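Hi R.,

As promised, here are both runs. First protein below:
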Amino acid sequence: MLADNTIRKVDANSFNGLDSLLELNLQENKIRELPSEVFSQLASLTNLNLKSNKLKNLPNGIFIDLLNLEKLDLGSNQLEEIGKDDLINPKLIELHLESNDLHAIHENAFGELRALQKLYLSGNNLVELENVFEEVHTLEVLDLDCNKIKKLPNLKRLANLKQLSLNENFVDELRQDDFEGMDNLILLGLKVNKLKHLDSNLFRHLPLLRVLDLASNNVNDLVTETFQGLQELRALDLSKNNIRKLGEGCFKGLESLTMLNLGSNRITEITKETFEDISGLISLLLNDNKIHKLNQNAFEQFERLKLLNLTNNDLMLKIDGHFDKIKNLRCLYLRGNYIRHLEKICGEELPYLKFLDISDCNVDEVGPEVFNNLPGLCFVKFTSNYLDQKELMALKDQYGNVTFLDDTQLPYVL
């Protein structure tokens, strides 16, 4: 085993005579430099791991003789730049360069990686990458997380790209043509950036996109047809923004959406029209907003909804009726609202509801049929309310088949 040692130096002839070697693992050593011909005899090598060393630069063409190399891991080194001829290899499929000190990559650095499919560049100091990826037409996965990128690089020629991750950067604007040519993209990560506004039809070039993560930005409002063209989108995360208003038709075109996270925003009102274009939702998270107005029929179109989270809002409501039409509901979170008099959870039967959280809701009175019409109810969180011990014990006795959870117990997970 050569991995996880204290190897500081590798000689040019260290691997001579190993022409049949398939894998070489040199990770977790202290190698600072590599002779230019050190791998010249390893024509059969398919996997080379140099992760977690102290490499600061690469000799030109050092990997050119590795004619069967498919995976190269240079992650967690001290590389500062990638030159034009540093990475020449005809069959390389997967390249790891994450967690280095990269601040510059030559625009033709990946031009001779004709088979490259996966490229990992997260955790560097990259700012400008305008034309770096123009010649990597085979690329399917591109990870640029945790850099200092302000502007999306030119990716128009990456027709095979399926996953693009730009989380934790400094992107403050998305242009109408940023995603042009990426017809096969399935996952797009843009969480923890500086985005303030999303234009109408911004994502129209991404017909196959299934996951879009825009959490932890500064988006204020959603305009009409923001997500038009994303007919295959399944999951949309807009949590931890500054969204106050959900414009009419802002979710138009999202007929396949099953998960929507709008938690930790500043939304104040929910009407039936708010979600009329996404009636197929299975999970809807509206926790930690400023919602004070909830129309009686706001959720009646959700025939498939299983999880609804309204935790920590400003709701002052009589629950009875608001959730009657969500017949498939499994989990309902109402913690941290103002209910006070809890007459009945629902007027009509919710046959599949298993978990209900009404803790910290200022409840000081419950009706005699409070959990009636909930034949499948298994778990209730009812802590931090104002029922005295006698009333609470009577409630537990009345619904002996229901487990009342305290704050130390994990809630029911869908």
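And here is the second one, sequence first, then its structure tokens:
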Amino acid sequence: AVMPPDGSLAAVFDRLTAEDPSHPCISVLTHTWSRADINGFATRTASRLAELGVGSGDRVGIIRRNAALYLIAMLSVARLGAVLVPLNFRLPAREAAKIIDDAGCSVVICGPRHADEFDGVMDSASPSTRPDSPRITWIVDDKDPTTDPVSDSLSARWHRLSEMPGGELDRPALPPVAVAADDLLLLQYTSGSSGQPKGVTITYRNLWTSWANVVDTLGDCSHDVTLTVAPFGHVGGLHTFTLQTMLAGGTVVIQRTFDVGQALELIEREHVTTTFGVPTMFDAMRRHPDFARRDLSSLRVAVVGGATAPLDLLEAYAERGIPLCNSWGMTETCGGGTMLPPSQVRQHVGSVGRAYPHTEIRLVDPASVAAGAQTHEARSGHGFGPPANGIPANRNDGSAAQDETAGTADGAGGSGPDGTVSLPEAADVEPGNVGEIWVRGGNVTRGYWHLGATPDLGFTADGWFRTGDLAERDEEGFFYIRGRIKELIISGGENISPAEIERELRTHPDVVDVAVIGVPDARWGETPLAVVVPRDANNPLTLDEARDYLDGRIARFKLPRHLKAIDALPLGPTGKVDRQRLQELVAGSHSPGDPWYSASD
């Protein structure tokens, strides 16, 4: 078992604090807090939440830039047996409100800037997510010395964290609620190809298995100092090294927002040993003038996610003695699925490594699944129904790697416990061929909030999750990412749904139709390009007009960076937009731009 007997995060941190209360725990800018400091903040915050009626299973949302409060909130919520809902700080208030509504949050904690934004859209938000809604208690963080002060104009409806009952210094700490492996801890929302965010349910089993995977691949992290630059609203920022390092006994250095020069300075000053980021972050650092002069020798491993780091980037870090390790994962796998160990970086350039030790991966021929899906539907006629709490109760918990009764790794098929049938037609591809990544293990989500784990969402009855990502495996078991089945754009590590941009831009009065595709970008990997059919061909919509129209409707990182007007969208034989033909039509119409710190900067 990878989960300790008492797997409550609060109980684990209580023990760490008792062992060495003065050990540095979290550092932000010039402020450093010990374990005793953080545990004191966390227990008092838990008491404040309990005073509001928060208990087991209740959802608590948090939206703000990276801050110590994120980890404090995680410990506080865990102490009560409640569920944390981290939100991407880049989301405008209107988008965030939809997630808060879907999750059914009873409490939402905001940073000062986001509190102002929510106040500004109070009247236009969903009735249940307005700050004056009796269903939600809205809290603004006014205790963080590393962030801006709370605005004096903020509505009186907001509760200031420092003034809430339950925060008395002499109040005894509430004992941690006992938890089971399959209890829900996190709801992490992710944007799929539909553009509608889905709440990925993350249990204690998922979290502890994910951490065991990293430790068994990279070694003990109890003495590590990890630099967190990825946003906490993402699975990579919160899970990869951050929570794990803190709860193993190490130190977390938090960067509120990614600043290239500051990140290099922090690695040198804090003797950082581990960090996680997307390729564009590491590329920006290696191109920064300080990269050559900073002492980065403490960094034992830097893990890359979101996309694969190219050869020249790997070599630039290797010259500094830093192994840049490609990995593959997603929110549904609690962040991780594969990783290339430091010892293999030079031998397997471009690979994202082998499957983690507590995770199974198979590569399936997509054509075999398409052929078998009709037979499967005819035999079973149903999928997993969404239960009341959003978590499927009647399927494998995803721990097949530790449970011999949980179906077969070769995908031979069979019946699930609720009578659904797996896909026996699903055929694995041979080494050297491209297939869809299917994943199974204790780190894999049990389903989506309110939606369950139905076959149409990618779940099979014998515990596999179909990721939509394409990969190739060599004879030694190393994986190489080859693309995506889903029409998803990944820009600087952020998932962008073309469907979401298309849906909003179609409402513009000057647009007849639109399709959005990803195009290469030297800094961000990919960026959205909107192909628009204008209502008036002589006066087509401009890029600036499109961006102005979309600003506030979607997050700013999703705004198209390029636009091309055409007479009609190319269609395939099924009547759907031919996106491959679109790529051909726009080829050469845009520039990928300059990389970070190029001569034009």
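A quick note on the second one: The domain at 357-484 is CATH 2.30.38.10 (Luciferase; domain 3). Let me know what you think.

Best,
J.
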